[in-house]
Amino acid sequence: MTGATAYKIVFNGKDYLTGGTSLRANNILAGETNIFTIVAQNSVSSSLEATINFQTLSLNSAINMNYQAINGNVATLVQAYQLIEWYAEGKYNIKGYYIAALMYIRQHYGSEFDAVMLTIRQHNENRFRAAHGGSPYVYGQGTYNGVGLHWIKTFPDNIELKWLSPGKQLKSINEYGSNGGFFGDNGMFSIAINDSVAVRGTTGNYSGEVNGPKDITENGIWDPVPINRGTLVWDRMTATFSVQKKKKKSELEVASDYYWAQGGLSMNPSHDKDSAWSNTGSILQDEYVDGVGGVNETRARVGLVYDDQGYVWIVMTQSYNCTMGNFRAAIQTMLNGTNGNGNVVNGIFLDGGGSSQMRCAEANVYFENTPGNRDNTRAVPQIVALINKV
Q1: What tens digit of pLDDT does each residue of 236-269 get?
Q2: Contacts with 218 (C-beta within 8 Å, 6 or more apart), sequence order
Q3: Structural domain boundaries of the chain?
Q4: What whole-number distance in Å separates Cα of residue 156 and Cα of residue 306?
Q5: What is the DSSP string of 161-172?
Q6: Which of 46, 133, 196, 309 could form a disulfide with 342 if both were Cys (CB 3.0 to 4.6 A apart)?
């Protein structure tokens, strides 16, 4: 190999070293064999990939701190905690080091790990509250091109996916949030998972582990075949959002059991605004959108999106007369870079129509007396709920 060599940290095929930090061969973030892959790339774009088990390492000079031998000693644990604190507090943009420290604690101090994750959640909450007047969420509303929106912005660790048995309307229970994924008489038709456990506490079809079925068969029975649908994942271990088109829980790409995943339909709000969405036959057909209400049907709409500041948004239309494309365009315009907000990156459509409902202290949105009672708010078995309401 010739030319300049830069190193980056790759875990599960993803680059987690952010902030443009470069590493030298003698200054590499290390982990155990088969955990971290060090990828060397030179100026002519050829690459060499190797998994390395280091005994010692030193930290980036911007931090000016050294790890000693990785042998489970107390000093190393304290240093791992320090890295986590720095990143969680927003003091340094050292995501690669943060993940390494978490992996290290999980491997060598497993009994400490739950407490560490709880501490991280508290840091995330503190940062959000400090930036938003002490509240764990922010409510807003607005109108774009005749589409009225209500939204709740919060931090991702404030989200819990809940199963309601029997199904209930949000307006009648003490929960803030919105309805969740698709469902039927058999149970859930969308993935809904908290920390690797499906919301129903069971496994298999209709439990919250599977996206599908796709449609009603000729004899009136739901086809139980799983299908690839957009699923919004918050990976708590790597502090990373993603929308993954997956059929079931076992296919989700996550770093650990610490995550939540909500299934729906892919939205891709960071792509073009309107053109493709005006063509009924071209969008979301591979996710069998017609089985749960077509793209151009005018219905109430609900979505779950995230932005480039790391926040998550629950969004609902003000009326029951909106296409998926118009809802998506309103999100792109109303939530992008306004009033100090970040830019929407990606998200999913949740169940709409008569399932659509949202509740918080400032708003209780549901529908009654719609034409033919088609979009009257119904009881739902799964919701996207806020953990902390005040």
Answers
A1: 988 899 999 999 999 998 888 999 999 999 998 8
A2: none
A3: 6-108, 137-386
A4: 9
A5: EEEEEEEE-GGG
A6: 309
